[in-house]
């Protein structure tokens, strides 16, 4: 893991937690590049190898390392509806995702994401999906 790509909308409270967590953690993980992805279209041409995605996820109860196959993309009706789940399916790239519950405590999220990143830095085997990570929907990350 060399890069953490984080998503969210800083102007929408329920979609800004991943941004806040990443901004705090990048000061502690100097060997990891933290990159804010404002538009999911950026993922199409991006090399996601050695990357972890950090995002707010609906329908989970705890910060979790999740399997991207468990993220359900919403039906697309306009270009404003393209979410992270859609782009992961479109690009067919395999990545690890740290999901943060939508209305989670910020300091607890920082601590739990930090622990996951430290664990991933020590080990390289593929991660197991979280039990509470089934049937999740990622937030729409198209800038307003």
The N- and C-terminal alpha carbons lie at a distance of: 30 Å
- Helicity level: 10-25%
Task: Give the topology string: H per helix, E per strand.
Answer: EHEEEEHEHE
CATH fold title: Rossmann fold
Instruction: Tell me which oligomeric state these chains represent.
Output: single chain
Specify the structural class: alpha/beta
Low-confidence stretches: 75-81, 124-144
| Mean of all residue-level pLDDT scores | 78
List keywords for this structure.
disordered C terminus, 144 residues, alpha/beta, 7-stranded mixed beta sheet, Rossmann fold, 3 helices, 7 strands, globular
Task: Walk me through this protein's architecture.
Strands 1, 2, 3, 4, 5, 6 and 7 form a 7-stranded mixed β-sheet that branches. The model is unreliable at 75-81 and 124-144 (pLDDT under 50). The N and C termini lie far apart (30 Å). This protein has 144 residues and is of the alpha/beta class. The protein is built from 3 helices and 7 strands, in the order βαββββαβαβ. 31% of the residues are buried.
What is the topology?
Elements: E1 3-6, H1 17-25, E2 33-36, E3 51-58, E4 64-67, E5 71-72, H2 84-91, E6 96-101, H3 106-122, E7 136-138
Parallel strand pairs: 1-2, 1-3, 3-6, 5-7
Antiparallel strand pairs: 3-7, 4-6
Helix pairs in contact: 1-3
